[in-house]
């Protein structure tokens, strides 16, 4: 945004008559929103709130680099209806009820859904009570909202799924004609080498629908895995958020409360901000170190179903066409990202 006055001012100063100089502030004001909009990357979030989903949504809507066109909800940390209600509440908290929200799948393609209320609280957002939302859901459902949003976009849209990949997999299956409108998929879930969460080598999001993950990662659409290798290194502790104390900003108060939930109820050191890092990687890819690597999903195995298999051999023998479109985040500048996240979550400036 700061570029606009610098671009406009010299030409006016040099060529415009005195009367035109009076119009200069107005010209700048008219141009500023145009410049900001043109720079924002269109994204659609797919969420299962979820404390870290809530932080991811708040980061996205408070980041001028992103244009959040829609949010779809999937089962996961909590049941679909609860996660969907949480999404409306979080958007209302952020003053962004204008963003359409649609409900998607209530369970995986195969098997039964898992929840993680032991981590996120019975209500999914650290048992923090937010007002009942006034906004209504987009009634067409998640697949229709994805299709309409992509079809109506003049430029390819980035998909940001941070829950089980069920909605995205079904969308890729049912709307192959819209794949060219997907710029890339940046997904939180999986692990290349870090310990898993619910199983020794398996993350919650992938275990909750391995078949959906296989469809997405084998689709040939560019997919970036932002997994436990990087997200487990980003922990928002009470010590880190002392700057939020006493803030009148309702978002800052919410963040303080959910981080406190982990400390007080779970005895954890803080909130591992898995999902916000995927959003951060879209805003500024330099937060993470990403490599082009073949990735596939183990669908069998008593102990390994849902494990992401990342081929890091120097000469991988099973590189397929789809594998050439998969990338993996292997390292993160955690300190810089956490500072950035807190700055965004503690400020209402956009
Ligand atoms: Ca999530």
How would you describe what is shown here?
Helix 1 (3-15) packs antiparallel against helix 3 (24-39) and helix 4 (51-61) packs parallel to helix 5. The termini are close together. The radius of gyration is 21 Å and the shape is globular. It has helices at residues 3-15, 18-21, 24-39, 51-61, 80-93, 117-120, 142-152, 166-174, 204-207, 210-217, 228-231, 250-266, 274-283, 334-345, and strands at 41-47, 66-73, 101-103, 157-161, 182-188, 223-226, 235-236, 271-272, 288-292, 295-297, 308-310, 326-332. Strands 3-2-1-4-5-6-12-9 form an eight-stranded mixed sheet, with helices on both faces. It has a two-stranded antiparallel ribbon with strand order 7-8. It has two domains: 1-38, no CATH class; 40-345, Alpha-Beta Complex (Inosine-uridine Nucleoside N-ribohydrolase, Chain A). It has 350 residues and is of the alpha/beta class. The longest helix is centred in the C-terminal third of the chain and has 17 residues, at 250-266. It is 39% helix and 16% strand. Calcium ion (CA) binds next to helix 4.
What's this model, at a glance?
With 350 residues, the chain is α/β, with parallel strands linked by helices. The chain folds into two domains: 1-38, no CATH class; 40-345, Ribonucleoside hydrolase-like (Inosine-uridine Nucleoside N-ribohydrolase, Chain A, Alpha-Beta Complex), CATH 3.90.245. Helix content is 39%, strand content 16%.
The overall number of domains is 2
State the end-to-end CA separation: 10 Å
Please list the strands of the largest sheet in the order they lie side by side: 3-2-1-4-5-6-12-9
Strand content: 15-25%
Q: Kindly state the mean pLDDT as a whole number?
A: 87
CATH fold name of the largest domain: Inosine-uridine Nucleoside N-ribohydrolase, Chain A
Q: What's the Cα radius of gyration?
A: 21 Å
**Corresponding CATH superfamily of the largest domain:** Ribonucleoside hydrolase-like
What is the structural class?
Answer: alpha/beta
What coarse outline follows from CA principal-axis ratios? Answer: globular
Order of helices and strands: HHHEHEHEHHEHEHHEHEHEHEEEEH
CATH class of the largest domain: Alpha Beta
Ligands, deduplicated: calcium ion
Count of DSSP helices? Answer: 14
CATH architecture of the largest domain: Alpha-Beta Complex
